[in-house]
Amino acid sequence: MSKENDVKFDRREFISRVSKAGISVAAAGTAAYLLYDGKGPGPSTGDKKLVTLPDFSVPRRDGQTISIVTGPDRVKTVNKAIELLGGIERFVRPGETVAIKPNIAFASPPMLGATANPELVAEVVRLCYRGGAKKVYVTDNPINDPASCFTLSGIGKAASEAGAEIIMPKDGLFKNTTLAGGRLIKNWPIFCGPFETVQRLIGISPVKDHHRAGASMAMKNWYGLLGGRRNIFHQDINTIIAELAILVRPTLVILDGTSVMMTNGPTGGSVSDLKQANTLIASCDMVAADSYGCGLLGRQVLDLPYLAKAEKAGAGTTNYETLKPKIATVS
Amino acid sequence: MKIVQTRRISQIFFFILFVWFCIVSTVGEKFQQIRGWPINWFLQLDPLAAIGTALTTHTLYRGLLWALATICLTIIFGRFFCGWVCPFGSLHHFTGYLGNRKKPAAQKIRLNKYRKAQCIKYIVLVFVLAMAAFPSIAVTLQTGLLDPLPLITRSFNLVLLPIFDIASAAERFYEGAWLILAIFLTAVLLNLVIPRFYCRFICPLGALFGVLGRFAIWRIGQNQSGCGHCKLCEKSCEGGCEPDGNIRISECVLCLNCRDDCEKEIISYQRQLSLAGEITGPDISRRGFVLSLAGGVFAVPAVRLSNKLGSNWYHKVIRPPGALAEEEFLSRCIKCGQCMRICPTNVIQPAGIDGGLENLWTPVLNNRIGSSGCQLNCTACGQVCPTSAIRPITLSEKLGIGEFAEAGPIRLGTAFVDRNRCLPWAMDKPCIVCQENCPVSPKAIYTQECFNTVRDGFLTVRKATDKRIETVETLVPGRFATGDYYCTNEGGERLKIVANTENLLELTKGEKFWKIPGEGGKIEVQVRLQRPFIDIEKCIGCGVCEHECPVIGKRAIRVFAEGETRSADRRLLLKS
Amino acid sequence: MASAGHRVKSPETVISVGLLVILFLIGAGIFVKQSDFDMGRFGIVTVPAGLPLQQAEAEEEEKPALSSLASEGFEPFSKTEFYKPENLYEKINGKAPFYIESGFEELSAQRFVNKNDQSLWMEVYVYNMGGVRNAFSVYSVQRRAEAEPFEPMRFAYKTSNALYFVHGKYYIELVGSAESEEMLKAIAEVARKIRAKLAVDYDTEIAELSLFPQENLVSDSMKLYLANAFGFEGLSNTFTARYRIADVTVTAFLSRRADSNEAEAVAESYRKFLIQNGAVRKNTSQKTMEGKVMDFYGTTEIVLSVGSFVAGVHEAENQEAAEKVAEILINKLNSANGNE
Q1: DSSP state of A249
Q2: Where, residue-wise, is CATH 3.30.70.20 in chain B?
Q3: What CATH fold (topology level) applies to the domain C207-339?
Q4: Distance from CA of A26 to the nearest CA of C (A)
Q5: Nearest CA to CA, how far is C240 from chain B (Å)?
Q6: Number of Cβ pairs closer than 8 Å across B and C?
Q7: Within an 8 Å CB–CB cutoff, is residue B57 touching chain A?
Q8: Which comes out higher in pLDDT, residue C171 or A179?
Q9: Choices 3.40.1000, 3.40.190, 1.10.3470, 3.30.300: CATH for C66-202
Q10: Which of A69, A227, B23, B349 lies at a CB distance of 3.0 to 4.6 Å from A189, suitable for a disulfide?
Q11: In B359-417, which residue ranges form alpha helices assigned H by DSSP?
Q12: Contacts of residue B567, Cβ cutoff 8 Å, sequence gap at least 6
């Protein structure tokens, strides 16, 4: 078909073109080989990367697992409670980063006791810095609109003033996670972004009555880590709380029973819902903390099925007496 | 034998093959039914689908490997696919020929001039690939909108063939077909304005081939000097590439008409570049490229502002069984319409934009159309999906039996009874059509019996025996004889009515009231209703109930997408 | 578009032809591909009657490998067909309910044709009835009047073109296209091949057969009705056998119930049923049968219970013969009861 009589055949250009063509074909072939998928996608959306939370807990010390301090001033009681368990040095090493997860679920004023007390949060932040922490983050994934929750609960301001950095929930901070052996936390989005780079995790929550779960205390506090349409788990609330207790292994939980919401929890709404119990619990075992805390609500361990479930799953013990709690009073 | 003759034969061959594949896209074993016909072959050869899904999913799914052959042949030979294979291209070619053949040569040459607007197709290409390329921002596969192979497949499967089906017993219906037809007709009729209009100006696949064919070993060109610029070569030039002078190689579709028309035999398909010069690359500036790239990249999050993939998801988007979760689905569906064509019950329909712009022409179920909702024992749709947007599931997986017994059946959604429209709930009329037709076992619809006194059912007794009751009031003869009506006395006993005349109620044989009402006594006529309830743990959302419901306007039982198994976040219940 | 001056040179022709060959090969490849298919991928599809249906789930037990049963000079033609209860009617139409009510599980059917003579072919029907009693029931109830015993097989009979027999839980029909010796020989060979594969102890499976006294028994007249014997709902699981006494034919029946209470209850309700439908009690000289003998529109019915059996005589032509048969039946059952 080609008549090459008039002009010389440009060999160089031809060879250059042929080699480019050859390289393109090779590249296409290689890409096809590398990407080839003969099976196709599987049934669930389980292709996403699965993430688990690290274990933030400190080694056990006999007799220094749970402390119960009574007194009206949170700043004093929390300092005492942590001192009884070995002081902040046991929990925060110099140079470490700490994440604090208070209960900031509602855009509710601090005096109604539906959220963690801002002064308490601020004091814990300061404690961590005193212990040598490089950076302290305060974060939560609230039920109401996050910005208003952080603001109206007073925690945003208090924490920042104490030197903490606030982390608001964002899409990119959620990752699908599966709890090994979990029935409910299967490939579910978990708010784990803030916790992936820190070394310590502290939970702070008030003692509240809860209409569905019976009580909202240290263990229920981790419900905030659930993303997606998490209200579906209310259908099996006790199992989800127990699974959360396995998923999250914090350094320390602080259960604030200074002003206890006795009725109409978890939102409360009236000061009359509250009762001054003036008790603060610090614990390395959140099951034990809740087991003691339910007494402040006038309830028993048996009234809260999630306690037994969590204990059975190995998250802690409901028999806090065996941990030899340290008791003190601060006026 | 002339090569252009071979080209014509090739075009006819592939066009007929394509139409045949569309015709056989129906479940069955006969020769003219699907059997083993590889109806997806054209879509699998389509590199735009392969590259698009490779970008969005980082995999090359199975049959799409055929596209590698197309790509390699294009790299070596140039845009042969456009001129020799593409059925849409052949259609344009033929229409353009019909519309323009009577015109004088000078006019034809003018029509085949290269136009700057031919760069638009490259912009389209960059735009759709950009939409697919950056998962860290967001990706969606929209190549199917303008990709000619899904487009012509859609048009034939959902519009042209069904129009001709009207004569046969198997009438098919497709919602929104008018739009598909309008686009198809516009594209085809534009050939009367400029030949191969779509191919030159719009087709992103042609653009892709234009780019891939850069280094083609053989290309059209002038093999000697002496061209007299008679421009006869451009009289029938299909690509608008101007072989007289600097030929734009990326536009050349290898129709070889120029070679055939050149009286001096100067033009040939040759290994060396054209002696008259060549413009190899597409006519798109760097600015144009960057703009369309940016446009594509940011179009996706812009479109997704409607949150139709999040909490604002549209509950009427019920996808076929085996469909992936929504985001993954949208990164694979090329909107070819094969699943809609093969579905034996005609329930899969092309969606509109109610569920978001990305939803256009993706498959959704409309239980009011077709013969029966999603047939229980059918997995046809997944078998024909070329990109596995609908997975090729087995019957065991669909029904949740065998190794899938623990996972349970695939649910498309859940049925909801509209108690305001349901006959036994709102109208005191007995009906259990939905429960009867529910195909799962045990049934997902169960009924609870209830007796309601009918309107005008409060009656006074004139005289009563143990089998018949004469009433003071006048009754409509035969009204209560259907077997659904019961008569109760003041003591609360209830007996079935078997017949009635104007004044007489006849009760069922063999039974009688303990307390036979006396004269002046009060009785009530009650209707026995079986009111349907949905057992949402068993409902698979197949839609048979919605299809059979006798309230045929807005059905009294309707399926919505809550509870579909493909989406973890749309569950109604925690799995037990 | 053809240009006047263009001469076609041979390289062009060669390439053209080569490309046409490629097109042809593509077409051929597609044509080959279309015959290689598995309709099971599409789930259950509507199949025209007579074509094989793919099984959706694997069976745990082996299906009979029918194609290997071809007799000498015959070869299989058509694939083995399988039918389940939901599509059995596609093969045997109105007869399907009868099998389904009797416990039908699956039918495998296979045709064989004579290699030399296409007009000579047979079809083998293997009905898996789920149990020996079921198989025996459908076998015995459908027994043709012109049946001849097929020695030496038990529970087998032949007609002019076919062979029917029970084989374990299978009821087998071998139907030939012609009434010829050659056909019957080929059929017999197939039957023997089937029989050789499995040995079944019919005596324990169908124990009741031995309870019919041999005296005056018409051979191979025993039938098993799984339900609704004589049109009466309560008579399930009922065996019948015919007796001939001096040119009078009498049908005897028996049915094993759970215990003597149930037996008496069933007997009583059957008697009531007969009376409701017009039967009249008759006097009898037999003490044991007092009150149990009835006249039903000219024929004699005797219904009584012996231990845990309901037994008696049905549609007897005269009372004397009926009572005679009933007597020996009662005696046999009594001694059987004594042995239990």
Answers
A1: B
A2: 326-409
A3: Protein Transport Mog1p; Chain A (3.40.1000)
A4: 24
A5: 36
A6: 103
A7: yes
A8: C171
A9: 3.40.1000
A10: A227
A11: 380-384, 395-399
A12: A45, B325, B326, B561
Which of the residue ranges B408-412, B547-551, C43-47 would you say has the lowest mean pLDDT? C43-47
The residue type at A226: L
Q: Could you give the dihedral angle defined by the CA atoms of residues C213, C216, C222 and C225, in that order, rounded to the nearest 10 degrees?
A: -80
Residues from A in contact with B at Cβ < 8 Å: 1-7, 9-10, 13-14, 17-18, 20-21, 24-25, 28-29, 31-32, 35-38, 40-41, 43-45, 47, 184, 187-188, 228-229, 232-233, 235-236
Distance from the Cα of B451 to chain C's closest Cα (Å) equals: 33
Instruction: Report the SS3 class of residue A294.
Output: helix
C12 touching chain A per CB within 8 A? yes
Tens-digit pLDDT profile for residues B366-402:
999 988 889 988 999 999 999 999 999 988 899 988 8
* Cis-peptide into C152, omega within 30 deg: yes
Question: What is the pLDDT confidence band of residue A210, given thresholds at 50, 70 and 90?
Answer: confident
Picking from C6, C13, C34, the nearest residue to B36 by CB comes out as: C34
Distance between CA atoms of C250 and C261, rounded to whole angstroms? 27
User: From CA A100, how far away is CA A112, in angstroms rounded?
Assistant: 21
Q: Is some CB atom of chain A closer than 8 A to the CB atom of C298? A: no
Instruction: Give the range among A60-69, A248-257, B230-239, C121-130 with minimum mean pLDDT.
Output: C121-130
Average confidence (pLDDT) over B154-176: 83
- A1 contacts chain C (CB < 8 A): yes
Q: Give, in words, the CATH class of B326-409.
A: alpha beta
What the block records as the tokens of A276 is: 């001054």
Residue B125 has pLDDT above 90, yes or no: yes
CATH number for the domain running over A66-329: 3.40.50.11440
* Contacts with B4 from chain C: Cβ below 8 Å: 1
Q: Does the distance separating the beta carbons of B59 and A37 come in below 8 Å?
A: yes
In 3D space, the residue among A175, A174, A189 whose CA is nearest the CA of residue A233 turns out to be A189
> How high is the pLDDT of residue B542?
94
For domain B450-530, give the fold. Elongation Factor Tu (Ef-tu); domain 3 (2.40.30)
Chain A residues close to C11, C-beta within 8 Å: 1
Subunits close to B (at least 3 CB pairs below 8 A): A, C
Q: List chain A residues with CB under 8 Å of C7.
A: none
Q: Cβ B383–C42 below 8 Å, yes or no?
A: yes
Please tell me which residue of chain A has the smallest CA distance to C13. A1
Position C203 confidence tier, pLDDT thresholds 50, 70, 90? low
Q: Please tell me which of the candidates C8, C35, C42 has its beta carbon nearest to residue B27.
A: C42
Greater confidence (C191 vs B13) lies with: B13
Min Cα separation B330/chain A (Å): 13
Using alpha carbons, list the distances in angstroms from residue B274 to A328, C3, C93. Answer: 96, 21, 74
Measure the CA–CA gap between B68 and B209, rounded to whole angstroms.
12
- Start-end of CATH 2.40.30 domains in chain B: 450-530
Q: Residue A116 pLDDT more than 60?
A: yes
Assess A40–C contact: CB distance below 8 Å, yes or no: no
Q: Chain-centre distance of CA B392, in angstroms? A: 16
Q: How far is CA A53 from the centre of its chain?
A: 9
Residue of A nearest to C9 (CA): A1
